[in-house]
Amino acid sequence: MIEISQALKIIKRETKPLGLESVRLDKSVGRILAEDIFADSDMPPFDRSQMDGYAMKAKDTRTAPVDLRLVGESAAGRGWHNKLKDSETIRIMTGARVPDGADSIQKIELTSESGDVVTIDEATTKGKYIVRRGAEIKIGKRLFQTGELIDERMIASLAAFGYPNVKVSAAPRVSILGTGSEIVPVDEQPGDDQIRNSNSVMLKAMCEQVGATANVLPQSGDDLRKLKRVISKAVGPKSKIPNPKSQILIITGGVSVGKYDLTKAVLSELGAEIYFQKVRLRPGKPAVFARLNDTLIFGLPGNPVSAAVTFYLFVRNAILLMQNATNTKLRSGFAVLASDAKAAKERDTYLPASLESDPSGKLIASPLRWHGSSDFVGFARANILVALKRGQIIPAGDVVPILFL
Which residue among 43, 78, 96, 247 is least crowded, i.e. fewest CB within 10 A of its CB? Predict the structure, then answer.
């Protein structure tokens, strides 16, 4: 049984980055940038109005209320490209270009217009309600860098600076294999002693959230020969140019020590190199990491919560490493425990919990009332894991480390 930190070091050692590809901007969320992103213009590209109102010279309003001569209008996308003179003003809209000569905006609520005369009710000051050219970013400045995960909040910036396509790391190909004769597809009615294959669908969604493409393989049951055949087909032969059918194969179930736990036996018979097969972790102790030909293989426990926790700690890490991501671990933080928490005596423990804030602004971690690692209904409400060291007993009110899911 190895430490979690040691398991992560082995995964990092055995995981190699993939190549690059270009994708459309609208398909890039969840992918890892493979190029630095630079501004191709100042932003804003001109002095821009923050208000609907009138542009003027601040010095002309010192004796407000004052009348100024209306000489034009500047709207978004249709600016007024003359130079404003003393005692003149133009009508201006939010987002429109501020003309040369103007150094202030007065909002429309403090003005009145009659014919070609605008009355300014209150004095204004230089720069008021104007966003200067380049105030947000200057041309040539780097916005994002290689290794960052693209999220939906970055899309507007990429679009604004002319990136209809972006270079990203190639998407790892992941195959997911659920084992166990008790498993039936999600669209089938389970018979006596059977359950639907919830793990594979869950893991497919988790893989796709971090940029991988994933497919669910036909179930193999607890048949040794069929299991060998399905794994061999997913992995493909060893080649001089690494190009396996699946760069990662996730197998759920069959990793413990029961009569029908066949995963480790099959991997051994196929000649896989097994790097670890027990981790000092709860839930998820019997997690397996191996390589067969050019494919990394993760054997995850069949219990859904164990499968999810070991995915978040290990498989997710490998998927991001393959994409050369800068940050491959779950984001961490701290919160106050809402109730007592206890770790396993000999294993580091990750408790599913919900994170909320109290009226004072403290983050509160509430361990979920779940009934073991098969309780996927309880786990559905988790948005963090409370990380405890082996043997720890932490009372309510103490601060604990957390991992954000």
Answer: 78
Q: What is the set of domains in the chain, with CATH numbers?
A: 4-19+171-322 (3.40.980.10), 21-41+145-169 (3.90.105.10), 48-131 (2.170.190.11), 332-404 (2.40.340.10)
Q: Is the pLDDT reported for residue 351 higher than 90?
A: yes
Summarised one tens digit per residue, pLDDT across range 230-281 is 888 888 776 554 555 899 999 998 765 554 467 888 899 999 999 999 999 9
Task: Compute the residue count for the chain.
Answer: 405
Query: How do residues 296-327 score in pLDDT, each as one tens digit?
Result: 999 999 888 999 999 999 999 999 999 999 99
Task: List the structure tokens of 317.
Answer: 């890490």
Rounded distance between C-alpha atoms, residue 222 and residue 262, angstroms:
7
The answer to whether 341 and 394 are in contact (CB under 8 A) is yes
pLDDT higher than 80, residue 92: yes
The token pair at 281 is 């972790």
CB 294 within 8 A of CB 243: yes
Task: Kindly state the helix (H) or strand (E) to which residue 275 belongs, with its residue range.
Answer: strand 273-276
**What would the two tokens of residue 264 be?**
């480790």
Look at residues 5, 83, 45 and name the one whose alpha carbon lies nearest to residue 314: 5
Q: Are residues 298 and 315 in contact, defined by beta-carbon separation less than 8 angstroms? A: yes
C-beta atoms surrounding 353 within 10 Å: 27
Percent of the chain with pLDDT over 70: 92
**Two tokens, residue 64:** 């407000």
- What kind and span of H or E run contains 160? helix 155-160
**CA proximity to 252, closest of 319, 310, 299:** 299
CA distance 291 to 235: 10
Alpha-carbon distance 91 to 108, whole Å? Answer: 9
Token couple for 294 = 């050019």
Using the 8-state DSSP alphabet, how is residue 148 labeled?
P
Residue 363 has a CB neighbour count (10 Å cut-off) of 15
What's the token pair of residue 129?
């309600």
